[in-house]
Design brief:
- This protein has 151 residues and is an alpha/beta fold.
- It contains five helices and five strands; from the N terminus they run E-H-E-H-E-H-E-H-E-H.
- Strands 2-1-4-3-5 form a five-stranded parallel β-sheet, sandwiched between helices.
- The longest helix is centred in the C-terminal third of the chain and has 19 residues.
């Protein structure tokens, strides 16, 4: 099973539409779930906001293999990510891809992730990361199933 855990709800229709398209496609291959968690209003104490949001993610994904998305995480090519996903899906019953809020995850919280990966060294709005992430999960599925989508 694959869960995509995100801090905040969809705020843009175009993001939701893009995400929903790949989510629907992936359901043919995997049991999928989307978990949207409450975000905090960004205050002067950004560290406190990151800590609260990260704790929500950790509590909500307890018992799952947690993959946090963070700009400082490990980078994969699509092909190596596909190979990694193939291995993980054989070894783990429940994988949670975790997308933080606008401020990201707390340093302490990242220590509780099983992996920290990056989609790019570039910075993206956390809402847009949802589409990039689910498209890469879909792409890895197509690569692993020998479908020519990925080129």
């Amino acid at each position: 099973m694959i869960t995509i855990c995100c801090v905040s709800r969809f705020k843009n229709d175009f993001v939701k539409m893009g995400f929903d398209e790949y989510y629907k496609r992936l359901q043919k291959y995997y049991t999928m779930s989307l978990l949207e968690l409450k975000d905090e209003r960004v205050s002067k104490d950004e560290d406190a906001v990151k800590l609260i949001e990260t704790q929500r993610v950790l509590k909500s994904t307890e018992g799952m293999y947690r993959i946090f998305l963070d700009p400082l995480g490990k980078e994969y090519s699509s092909v190596t990510f596909a190979a990694h996903m193939k291995k993980l899906l054989l070894e783990q019953q429940h994988i949670a891809f975790c997308v933080g809020g606008a401020l990201g995850f707390s340093e302490e919280g990242r220590k509780h992730a099983d992996e920290v990966i990056s989609l790019s060294k570039m910075t993206f709005p956390h809402q847009l990361v949802r589409i990039l992430l689910i498209e890469q999960i879909y792409r890895s599925c197509m690569i692993n199933n020998g479908v020519s989508y990925h080129k």
